[in-house]
Amino acid sequence: MRNVLTLTEKELRTYFVSPLAYVVIAAFLVVTGVFFAGIFIGSHQATMEYTFQNMSVILLLVSPMLAMRLLSEEQRSGTIELLLTSPVRDIEVVLGKFFASLVFLVTMLGLTLYYVLLLTRFGSPEAGPILSGYLGIFLLGAAFLAIGLFTSSLTSNQVVAAFLTIAILLVLWVLDALTSMFGSSASAVLSYLSLSKHISDLPKGLIDTKDLIYFLSLIVACIFLTTRSLEARRWR
Amino acid sequence: MIQVDKLTKYYGERAVITNISFDVRTGEILGFLGPNGAGKTTTMRILAGFMPASGGTAKIAGYDVLRQSLEARRNIGYLPENVPLYPDITVASYLDLMAKLRGVSGKRKAARVAEVMEICRIRDVADKLIGKLSKGYRQRVGLAQALVHDPKVLILDEPTVGLDPKQIIETRQAIKRLGGDHTIILSTHILPEVSMTCSRVVIINEGKVAAVDTPEQLTRRLQGTERIELEVRGSNGSIVNCLRAVQGVLRVDTSDVDGRQLFLVECASGADIRAQLSAAIVHGGFDLLHLSSVGMSLEEIFLKLTTKEDIAA
């Protein structure tokens, strides 16, 4: 566990010395801010529901940027050799990286609490849906990052990792819309796998265990696959 | 300290190393010598626990590098060929990170980081970003990283590659000083490096061990033939024929250096035929200007060991 924290700390330092971190945070805040203002002024409703929907789409584009470097850069620069020959387990390397990206995600989401502050200043929003909405957005972002972490373990090229992640995320996102093309049993499976399906209820204040299990199992599966992928790199 | 037994590694169908076996005793500096592509890096990566072997075993400080990988890795300091550094952190925080990952903590960590910065002469760049360092400094930071947890075994893959002559000498001296306390394997394709730093040499070629010995023994062992250099004035072809006629001569090579006609005669070792050679030349009516026996440098041994045998003309 101590190794995980050491690696998380190192990774966070790497995040915040690169301009990418600040560009990503700024872009995320600008885009969500514009939508928030537009929705708020247009609807006169003290709710975050629509802002959360926008955030989830923006996260879909932003998370690959945050995750692409995590393992691909180590492979490109050869520092992976340093990590894998230190007395550190592969899973510790993977978790250290993943936790760092989660801290980054939380920081970014934390800054959007400003919108909530504005809502309470001008209206009286319900706390429940906002809390469950943030939980949903966090889980969604974490799943995006876990998938991104996995693809970055597959290649030493950051751009390839980012595009691969976006492709996977988009497919998972629109699976729900494809269900009409298939038979009923296939469509049930596709609909269960769809990311957008599981995020739709949370901003409304509905926490379904099925959704939580979906996100958690997706994250665990990606962490597992990433660890195996690192291991496979040794055997190559 | 290090036991390597019948190590074999396949990349797909191709065997990169086959049946590599050798031992390294505690405190010894072992030179791992071979041309590029001989399998040096592969062997070292297996020893460092970066990749598993396809066959055979390797033990570091008594721990199997595959089955007891973490314990083995704790006892290893490894400097890969391409020095792995994080360009966007400072030297001090890089060493601090590496110390933590190798389980050095608290007061000892600060002391160790200071110590290795002293040993590797990088104290003056402690607060600089690694990305801004010159090649020489990077190499030293790489060595510091391998030393920071005071490992029993050091695995150094081409530690002097890309350095200028002064830095090469300094690095070799640093490595020599580390021997005794540490058991060191050092790979190189530069021969003088081996004779200068190592107490024993493993020569590896095309993935196989070609010889294991001390640099001195190796020189002696390989002097299966002795060579004599002559400078003679006269017609080239007839001189060669004359030399070939002498009993015990195995081979004659000619060369022309600055208008001087040189002949290199190879003969079986032990048989001193210098007198017969000079007599033959004088009897043949040529002018003998110079005659001396030539020792064999390690460089030539190396060529002999690792290049395929020439088909005699």
What does this structure look like?
The complex is a heterodimer of chains A (about 240) and B (about 325). With about 240 residues, chain A is an all-alpha fold. Chain A has one domain (about 1-235). Helices cover about 85% and strands about 0% of the residues of chain A. Chain A has helices at about 1-15, 20-45, 50-65, 70-75, 80-85, 90-110, 115-120, 125-155, 160-180, 185-195, 195-200, 210-235. The model of chain A has no long low-confidence stretch (mean pLDDT about 90). With about 325 residues, chain B is an alpha/beta fold. Chain B folds into two domains: about 1-215, P-loop containing nucleotide triphosphate hydrolases (Rossmann fold); about 225-295, 2-Layer Sandwich (Alpha-Beta Plaits), CATH 3.30.70.3190. Helices cover about 35% and strands about 30% of the residues of chain B. Chain B is built from eleven helices and 14 strands. Chain B has helices spanning about 40-50, 70-75, 90-100, 105-120, 135-145, 165-180, 190-195, 215-220, 235-245, 275-285, 300-305, and strands spanning about 1-10, 15-25, 30-35, 55-60, 65, 75-80, 155, 185-190, 200-205, 210-215, 225-235, 250-255, 260-270, 285-295. Chain B has a six-stranded mixed sheet, sandwiched between helices. A four-stranded antiparallel sheet of chain B has the order 2-1-4-5. In chain B, strands 12-13-11-14 form a four-stranded antiparallel sheet, covered by helices on one side. In chain B, strand 1 (about 1-10) and strand 2 form a beta hairpin. In chain B, helix 3 (about 90-100) packs across helix 4 (about 105-120) and helix 4 (about 105-120) crosses helix 5. Residues about 305-313 of chain B have low confidence and may be disordered. At the A-B interface, helix 1 and helix 5 of A face helix 2 and helix 3 of B.
